[in-house]
Design goal:
alpha/beta; eight-stranded mixed β-sheet; two-stranded antiparallel ribbon; 11 helices; 19% strand; globular
């Protein structure tokens, strides 16, 4: 990617091209099927391998909200617990490049089953529409998604979706506005970091003070910006960073690996922060895709990741301060010693999950 590109997030085109090379873009040449049909097929595959909550335990609400001030549609999928007796914490979910509101269902449905509401936000400038059309134009479409304008728009999508959710009479009474978190994977990881407190010098401030915690999964580096510390030091809400030893993005001229994810963790200014590094793995195993990173390992990491997110948030909001410590003991066999490299000097070993 040319260094003159005015990006202040990541080498997003690198992420997208890497995904395309791994087969995520193959739909461009496949027979046309609807998103709903593809999701139903994937859901069936996931359900065969991962315990998923019964349909009667959760409620799914789809909305097509339009932000008139930006002339931008923001599709969302809200997954709610049916049996909640009062307002529940709300978790915004931001997808990676080429994703949609239908993805990360293994996480969102589990959150709902554990008494959280998951609001999956779709970013129309960098969503699954990128995979449609001629494969010869794919790089051009990906290039259009890897712009500063889209990076800003994604963070604004989260703010807008949260505004609409809290103003929706059918939703607002069921969620707790004092307990709101954001989870993002890959491009979404950068999106939620910006919304939760990261600030790029000289660029618009995109922080939403309603976010009280953040989970960044496989967040790539802030490409071209040098030391991430000035960007992430202002982020002070509790933060969880998740990655894997082989969480790699590889294309000619660009490489991003686990050490960049660890560097983002180190740079984060939160005193309450934790790092989890899984052994082996892949960049896309944190999505709904099966098989990547090893078939058995993929499933084990998905199960552990969704449990980790709940335990992290429970530790903040449900008086389970040692929840992640217990999680780490249970899943020690899945973890890499690399997470010890994330130990900053200003917090205790206990607080980062050793």
């Amino acid at each position: 990617m040319p260094r003159s590109r005015p990006l202040f997030l990541t080498a997003l085109l690198g992420v997208a091209t890497s995904l395309a090379l791994m087969g995520c873009a193959s739909r461009a040449s496949e027979p046309a099927t609807s998103d709903a049909e593809r999701q139903a097929t994937r859901q069936a595959r996931l359900a065969e391998l991962l315990p998923m909550p019964a349909a009667e335990r959760i409620q799914i609400v789809d909305r097509e909200w339009v932000d008139d001030t930006r002339a931008r549609t923001v599709p969302v999928r809200l997954v709610l617990p049916r049996d909640a007796t009062g307002p529940v914490p709300l978790v915004l979910v931001s997808h990676g490049i080429g994703g949609s509101r239908l993805g990360y269902s293994y996480l969102g449905r589990h959150l709902a089953a554990q008494g959280y509401a998951a609001l999956h936000v779709q970013h129309v400038g960098s969503d699954n529409r990128l995979w449609r059309g001629s494969p010869f134009d794919l790089l051009s479409r990906l290039n259009g998604a890897a712009t500063e304008a889209e990076a800003i728009a994604r963070a604004q999508d989260l703010r807008f979706a949260l505004d609409r959710a809290l103003a929706d009479a059918d939703i607002a009474t069921r969620v707790d506005p004092a307990r709101i978190a954001a989870v993002g994977h890959s491009y979404g990881g950068n999106t939620v970091l910006l919304a939760a407190g990261a600030r790029v010098p000289g660029k618009p401030v995109l922080v939403d003070d309603r976010l009280k915690a953040v989970v960044a999964i496989s967040a790539p580096p802030f490409h071209g910006m040098g030391d991430p510390a000035p960007i992430l030091e202002p982020l002070r809400v509790p933060a969880l960073h998740v990655t894997a030893e082989d969480d790699d993005i590889r294309i000619p001229g660009f490489y991003s690996g686990v050490q960049e994810r660890v560097a983002l963790f180190r740079a984060t200014g939160s005193e309450h922060k934790r790092l989890v590094v899984f052994r082996d793995g892949s960049h896309s195993m944190f999505t709904d895709r099966l098989g990547t990173g090893g078939s058995d390992h993929n499933v084990a990491v998905k199960l552990a990741t969704r449990e980790l997110v709940v335990d992290f948030l429970d530790g903040l909001w449900r008086e389970r301060a040692d929840a992640v410590d217990g999680w780490q003991t249970r899943h020690a066999a899945l973890l890499s010693p690399l997470q010890a490299e994330g130990a900053p000097t200003h917090v205790t070993q206990r607080s980062i999950g050793r």
